[in-house]
Amino acid sequence: MSNSEDAPEAAFSEAWRRDGPRVAAYARRHVAPDDVQDVVAETFVQAWRRWDDVPEPPIGWLIATARKVIGNSRRSARRRTALHDRLTLLDRAARPEADAAMLATDRMAALEALAALPDTQREALLLVAWDGLSPDAAAEVLGLRPGTFRVRAHRARTALDAHLDHDLPADKRAASPSRPLTEGGLR
After folding, report:
1. What would the 3-class secondary structure string for 111-172 be?
2. Residue 177 confidence (pLDDT)
3. The pLDDT of residue 152
4. Are 48 and 91 in contact (CB under 8 A)?
5. Is residue 139 within 8 Å of 145, Cβ to Cβ?
6. Distance between CA 117 and CA 155 in Å, rounded?
7. Does the reported pTM lie above 0.85?
8. What is the four-CA torsion angle of 63, 65, 66, 68, rounded to 10 degrees?
9. How far apart are CA 183 and CA 55, in angstroms?
10. CB-hemisphere CA count at 13 Å for 114?
11. Which residues contact 59 (CB under 8 A, 6 or more apart)?
12. What angle do CA 151, 156, 159 make, to 5 degrees?
């Protein structure tokens, strides 16, 4: 190797020795202790790949790159957490119940009762029960005043309860509470 080829390596090695601890100090303020060396290593890998573009002195560029590495790491962690949460939810939903036939029958009855509602009432219930909107937010989606929406949702629940109670044997109608469409219920 000639001296001109050794110059970038020597400058990079000097930056590693001189600025590595400063990048680590920056990382320690922003990540867990176990992640500090990973941030420093990734920062310097990126610096090596772009060494010709790194300004002199490199510390500002290195800190800015460390900041981006930390941001990417946080986004990755959020994606992993979100994926884990979705998988947990799917696992819970797919877990067989003690009496799967009864659960399937209950779901089918609820869906049939929901389908029997007028479109406006069905949409009111779905916005709250399945989409998780507050009554005020659902009213805004439908272009209604909140009071008007609450009346519509109340009428929809009443009609849904009547339809579901109609499907029950006579001896269980009075004793049966309203059956919700979701785990959290409609109310």
Report:
1. HHHHHHCCHHHHHHHHHHHCCCCCHHHHHHHHCCCHHHHHHHHHHHHHHHHHHHHHCCCHHH
2. 45
3. 93
4. no
5. yes
6. 10
7. no
8. 130
9. 57
10. 19
11. 19, 22, 23
12. 125
DSSP 177: P
Give residue 7's pLDDT.
85
Q: Which two tokens stand for residue 171?
A: 């001896």
Which H or E element spans position 73?
A: helix 59-94
Q: Please list the ranges in the chain whose pLDDT falls under 50.
A: 1-2, 172-187
Best CA proximity match to 23, nearest among 38, 40, 37: 40
DSSP state of 55: -
The pLDDT of residue 47 is 94
Q: Residues for the chain: how many in total?
A: 187
Closest CA to 44 of 27, 30, 32: 27
Pairwise CA distance, residues 97 & 107, whole Å: 13
Nearest to 141 by CA among 133, 152, 153: 133
